[in-house]
Amino acid sequence: MQSSEYWLITEYIELGNLYEYLSHNDVSNTIAVQLMRSLTNGISYLHTEIRSGYSYKPRIVHRDIKPTNILVKSNLTCIIADFGLAIYCYYNDISHEAESQIKGTPRYCSPEKLKNTSSSKKFPSMLEQDVYSLSLVLWEICQRMDVTFDENEKLPLYKPCFYKEVSENPTVEEMMEILLKNKQRPEFSAEWMDKNKALESCVEIIKEAWHENGSVRPTALKIRNTFDNAIIKCQLNVFSV
């Protein structure tokens, strides 16, 4: 019997993942908002149950949202990738639970996920955990907006959230120390806020999204709508997805 080869053909993403893109580029306000809006739109789509005739899409939690799992298309919109840890919820059956050990990338794990309580394994909590991870990625995009450096200098290194507080590949214990004991979160500097006053509503909802209490966090849809309103208010020419 002859063996068969199977080929999986996917779209070529020229710009690579978001980590690579932000490592090699600073971004304008317009591009930053475009990246953030398209990313939140993608997460909102995953989290939404859609019923249309005979078609059905369940709610999906990703569980490992981070820059290396987000691809950047040539039109500078984001695609969410790597669904190896994803969990589906069919027809509002929220009985699906996560495994007992913590899965995902510690740097982007929410406080409740790090605690690894029984409630954190429930589907509604996992939706809130995705939103927390999303907020950190949005903060990282913001930090690459119009980075100041001389023409003769290299672009400053891309720095992930909590780069000052933890090691390059932090453990669960390291993240528990800064999130649960020290109650730390990333910061928007006063200088950054002065430069980007028009995005104040976006900053506020990002801060809400990393709240320690998952039930207080906005939904991905609400975050997307906030970016939509900012686009209209600032009259930004953003590619719609």
Indicate the topology.
Elements: H1 18-24, H2 29-47, E1 50-52, E2 55-57, E3 59-61, E4 70-72, E5 78-80, E6 87-89, H3 111-115, H4 123-142, H5 172-181, H6 190-195, H7 200-209, H8 220-234
Antiparallel strand pairs: 1-2, 3-6, 4-5
Helix pairs in contact: 2-4, 2-8, 4-7, 7-8
GO molecular function: ATP binding; transmembrane receptor protein serine/threonine kinase activity
Main location: membrane
Organism: Panagrolaimus superbus
Characteristics of this structure?
38% helix, 8 helices, mainly alpha, transmembrane, 241 residues, TGFB_receptor
Could you explain the architecture of this structure?
This protein is mainly alpha-helical and 241 residues long. It has a single domain (18-147, 157-234), classed as Transferase(Phosphotransferase) domain 1 (Transferase(Phosphotransferase), domain 1). The chain contains 8 helices and 6 strands. It has helices at 18-24, 29-47, 111-115, 123-142, 172-181, 190-195, 200-209, 220-234, and strands at 50-52, 55-57, 59-61, 70-72, 78-80, 87-89. The strands form 3 sheets. It has a two-stranded antiparallel ribbon. A hairpin with a 2-residue loop joins strand 1 (50-52) and strand 2 (55-57). Helix 2 packs antiparallel against helix 8, helix 4 (123-142) crosses helix 7 (200-209) and helix 7 (200-209) runs antiparallel to helix 8. It is globular and about 55 Å long. It starts with 17 loop residues before the first helix and ends in a 7-residue tail after the last helix. The model has no long low-confidence stretch (mean pLDDT 90).
